[in-house]
Amino acid sequence: MLLGLLFTLYGDGDQGERLKLDDGRELRRLNALHKREYFSIFGVFELFRAVYGTREKQKIEWAPLDAQLSLPESKFSYLLQDWDQELAVNEPYAKVNDVIRKIFGLKQSVNSLERTNRKMSESAEAYWEQLPAPSIEEEGALMVVQADGKGVVIRSESDAGKPAQSKPLKSTEKQESKEKNGKKKMALVGAAYTIDPYVRTPQAILDALFRKPRPAKKASTETRPKPVAKHVRASLSRDAQGTMEPSYKEIYDWLRREVALRDPDSTKPLICVMDGQAKLWDELDLHFPGVELIQILDIIHVTSYVWDAAHLFHDKGSSQAAGFAKKRILRLLKGEVDGVVRGLRWMSTHEGLSEKQEESLEKVCGYFENNRHRMAYDEYLAKGYPIASGVIEGACRNIIVDRMEHSGMRWIVNGAHSMLQLRCVKLSDKWDDFMQFRFRRECERLYPGYAANEETFVNVA
Questions:
Q1: 289 with 358, same domain?
Q2: Which parts of the chain have pLDDT scores under 70?
Q3: Average pLDDT, whole number, for the chain?
Q4: Do 289 and 175 belong to one domain?
Q5: CA–CA distances in Å: residue 317 to residues 143, 222, 309, 323
Q6: pTM of the model
Q7: 147 and 280: one domain?
């Protein structure tokens, strides 16, 4: 009732038969009051307002009431859009609709929620470009960037007209089969943050990898530094040929901007920790030309290759396999990459491996050789550098798996890309700031002359 009274007090916005806009154009009031629906958390309202244009049945050029109330471009209030989409980045659209209906008695369609999501995501890139750097006092001493890929289940062209969330698959085998048949498209995820150094020893890392408990006294006094202002982005963009090049450009260009913004004088060591995927490193070289970058191969991926080698000589789950892995992981942590590779090849020759086993072992050796310049772990640990890509691995899980892989979910590319944009804003702890940015940006576009003279905007519920 109060919101309805507010609309009544504002009236229909009539400003006379003619009015002149700030750009010099003169418009005349069209004959009839034009109706506009407004969906609010307090219900649906019909606003009858005076509108101005050049002549009847042509485009409405100006609606004074819309400007006075800073009404959004869509019929949904900014507050409702905010609450809808903050729920939607975590829950399926149908669930969002159920929650809003249960609380407010307001019925929305899944299609309207999807459209709002896509429209809102269009402001994400501009938001990141204008975002100021965190304060110098808050930042850590090391600048870290990371990237990784994660698949999103995409609907086929024949499913284009079906709902985005179909019935759950009946088995894991069917899911894997569909993914192998090209049902997944890779999204590229990037992360940027600063952190303080954390000096450790190779033995401490080995103990952590094999979960050897630390002494209680040490655990109570030790403070591990945490990432500062961890920002994440994701992209599912494709070019006309269907390649990921636009995604690589979007994410790596953003990473470069983050580095330039947060360390403009290049005073911090710039570290990149990723897995061994060659394309990730090639794109890094392409987008960071002439930049002194400390490239570090993720230790977790390294240990998985060591375990692959261990299981060529010993049974899985055996103490012998564990001993084999521990010994070589410790040597790698001490920087003895070449020695480990020579030892593995010697064993390949003298332990009577089959041809297939020899090929598998050579794959392990080749992985270490190709990445040896990123495996100086003894030096990295002594300087307190991170050696694991846990931040980007966690980002892939949080951004994609926790939202995009609910049971039976399939996406179209544009819808998935939009969801990723907004979910990254949320997971970067920037949601409220982003919503204010989008609100002002849309109002300035819709009502340029009016907005320029207003210090604050009305934002009705």
A1: no
A2: 156-182, 212-222, 449-460
A3: 89
A4: yes
A5: 39, 32, 13, 11
A6: 0.86
A7: yes
**Dist. CA 286–CA 280, nearest whole Å:** 10
Q: What is the largest CA-CA distance in the chain?
A: 97
Output the pLDDT for position 455: 54
Q: Are residues 294 and 145 in the same domain?
A: yes
- Tell whether 367 is covered by a domain: yes
Whole-angstrom Cα distance, residue 217 to residue 219? Answer: 6
The residue range of the domain holding 195 is: 137-298+388-423
- Distances in Å between the Cα of 411 and the Cα atoms of 187, 333, 347 are 12, 42, 48
Structure tokens at 103: 């609380």
Pairwise CA distance, residues 441 & 424, whole Å: 20
Tokens encoding 296: 């570090």
**Shared-domain flag, residues 29 and 78:** yes
- Straight-line distance from the first to the last Cα atom of the chain, in angstroms, rounded to the nearest whole number: 13
The Cα–Cα gap between 175 and 296 comes to 34
Single-letter amino acid code for the residue at 399 = I
Q: Show the tokens assigned to 263.
A: 């360390």
Q: In terms of residues, how long is the chain?
A: 461
How many alpha carbons lie under 13 Å from residue 229 in its C-beta half-sphere?
Answer: 19
The tokens 């994400």 sit on which residue?
A: 124
Yes or no: say if 314 and 324 are a contact pair by the CB < 8 Å rule. Answer: yes
Q: Are residues 227 and 251 in the same domain?
A: yes
**Is the domain of 281 the same as that of 409?**
yes
3-state secondary structure of 216: helix
Whether residue 380 is contained in a domain is answered as: no
324-344: per-residue pLDDT in tens? Answer: 999 999 999 999 999 999 999
3-state SS assignment for residue 239: coil
**Matching residue, tokens 């070589």:** 328
